[in-house]
């Protein structure tokens, strides 16, 4: 049985977040054989999602969101904290990670090996406090916007995992991810809110436990009501 955690994140002054819930499938990929990148890729392909990267994360990174595309992230190794839903308020990573230089609100989740996160377009996320400690690095060929070459499975099978690593995937034929930090989309949050729901969940396919059942038909929120208490 899939353990699904749901988080509804309202917009902030700088971050659109989403009417759809952030989903966490805790320990979904419990077995080592399930976490092999090439095996995950086959599963994603069957559900019309595309692997674009495997990153090894450093101690911290800027908070950001993807304005026009939904994202799935699977934890392949290590442990980290992921902060969802708020923007950094200072470019200094020490201040915005460990201090108070961030928007109020949001949530922090401990990401463990085997966890899967389904992140709606517009939802901010920031990975930090990684263990084992390592330098940030892209582990897959290319620039992080897709795996080049005729044999993606072979390229993924050759990746050597170390530190805290995640694998990222996006719905097929929906383009590549952007990196919005909370300035670019102000005044145009509806563009993120209106990104269509994918046909299938990247890991659960047609199961109602996944986005097919958990994400409702898009209904653009009333902007005035959402921002009334900000």
TrEMBL record:
Superkingdom of source: Eukaryota
Family matches, as InterPro entries: Cupin_1, RmlC-like_jellyroll, RmlC_Cupin_sf, YjiB-like
Question: Which CDD domains does the UniProt entry name for this protein?
Answer: cupin_YjlB-like (cd02219)
Per UniProt, residues of the Cupin type-1 domain are 63-141
- Give the protein name, as stated in the record: Cupin type-1 domain-containing protein
**What's the source species for this entry?**
Daldinia eschscholtzii
């Amino acid at each position: 049985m899939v353990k699904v955690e749901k988080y509804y994140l309202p917009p902030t002054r700088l971050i659109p977040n989403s009417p759809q819930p952030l989903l966490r499938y805790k320990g979904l990929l419990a077995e080592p054989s399930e976490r092999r990148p090439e095996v995950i890729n086959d599963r994603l392909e069957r559900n019309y999602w595309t692997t674009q990267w495997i990153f090894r994360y450093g101690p911290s990174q800027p908070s950001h969101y993807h304005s026009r595309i939904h994202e799935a992230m699977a934890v392949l190794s290590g442990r980290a904290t992921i902060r969802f839903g708020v923007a950094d308020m200072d470019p200094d990573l020490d201040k915005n990670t460990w201090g108070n230089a961030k928007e109020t609100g949001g949530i922090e989740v401990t990401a463990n090996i085997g966890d899967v996160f389904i992140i709606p377009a517009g939802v901010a996320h920031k990975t930090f406090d990684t263990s084992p400690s390592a330098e940030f690095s892209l582990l897959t060929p290319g620039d992080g916007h897709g795996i080049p070459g005729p044999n993606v499975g072979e390229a993924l099978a050759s990746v050597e995992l170390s530190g805290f690593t995640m694998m990222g995937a996006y719905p097929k034929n929906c383009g590549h991810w952007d990196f919005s930090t909370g300035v670019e989309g102000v005044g145009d949050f509806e563009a993120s809110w209106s990104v269509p729901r994918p046909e299938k969940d990247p890991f659960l396919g047609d199961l109602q436990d996944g986005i097919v059942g958990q994400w409702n038909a898009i209904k653009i929120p009333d902007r005035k009501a959402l921002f009334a208490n900000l």
